[in-house]
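Pasting as-is:
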Amino acid sequence: MNTQLFINGEFKDSDELQKVINPSTGEVIAEVSLASEYDVLSAVSAARIAFDHKDWTGLSLAQRKGFLLKISQGILDKAGELANLETLNTGKPIKESTFMDIPSAAETFRYFGENLEKFLKPEIKNVSTQIAHVQANLLREPLGVAVLIVPWNYPLLIACWKLAQALAAGNTIVLKPSSLTPLSVLELAQIVKDAGLPNGVVNVIVGSGEKIGKALCSDKRVDMISFTGSNEVGKRILEYSSENVKKLIMELGGKSASIICNDADLESAVNSSLCSIFLNQGQMCTAMSRILVEADIYDQFVNDFVNKAQRIKLGVGGDFETQMGPLISEAQRKRVIACIEQAKKDDARIICGGKIPAAEEFKNGFFFEPTVITEVKPQSDIFKEEVFGPVVCISKFVKLDEAISLANQADFALAACVWSKDEAKAAEISGQLNAGTIWVNTYGMFFNELPYGGFKQSGFGKELGKEGFLEYTRLKDVIVDKTKEAKPLVNYWYGF
């Protein structure tokens, strides 16, 4: 496994190492090199030189496409190794890594490789007035050096989302994975190197935001930052980036709500809602941590949901029978426990889970039971704040207006779900929900063709789709006067 920094086409050691932990066992699985401020400057310099010397943008779009397809194939060629590495490092079940994360990562490179020429095709607009006729050429160009900062919950997949779009658009890259989960991204660096990209086009550094965040995000040679992570860190990045103005994409926290109407397919709503909160141990910004159920079906929904939640198989990530693995760290587990204890003080009722599993097999990992909470007051912290763990609040509503109001009252606006067999009603509800992505009668469907991103405290900007791809570009407008047999109006303004 790769444990070194990747700068200017070469892997290199650093003076400081950090232990990487397997959340399933608490064991040290690697020691990775941590970047110093000097390493950060070296990585930014390498990316800046590669961009300014046109080592990447000087290639034809067909050549750029070829490199992205090589990376896609490289991920598929190492699919088993990457899946095992991702599970070892994050604790997520191996079947999630194998069947969701790795194929999706490869497909993202393939999609943007296949479509970059179409997305970058210049647009021509003709504008005619009584006094002039002009032709405007709208050109999409890369921004320059892009810093991509990736969270620990989906380290490889989100790295590939950002990297594929940024590279396809023509940018050069400094990629920083979380120091908790760097291993699969460092292996991605090897795939990039094997694909033969010019030196300096992609650089991968590992380090804590506290030590290298300011140097990385305030550097005026950096043209854009794409960040996925917590609101706390996002605010610091906004502060750092303000020292030298640059483009930002911010995908921050969520407190998503699912509205389940009494005409929903109950079995589908229950099964999918289990996935929407307990997949990846609830460590998802789009987790439906608030489920609002219409009164007529509330008791049946809760009964079915709890019965199935109690049957979810906890286990080490590497076991294909495991349905839910451990949390990422002991610190994260303590945070989840603190949220639940506060909910108890607010008179909420824990009807399922709420504690560390007692079995001997779980004693060394960071496991926590699937947890269901009812009788939650809308003003309580557990209803408003992101827990980022396997904890869900299920609440009853009588009128749809009440449910929509509850769903919208959070400071976050990333995603939502609506469950109803009446498509017209579902569409009407969706139109009133304040969220960037709304799933109707499903959950968690991400497509490379469709943009994704939130509102309010969930951030700004989009990932994926043509819209997300264009976030990694700048728009240049070249205007040519095409007025026949006449000089431009400005010719006469000071015409002596």
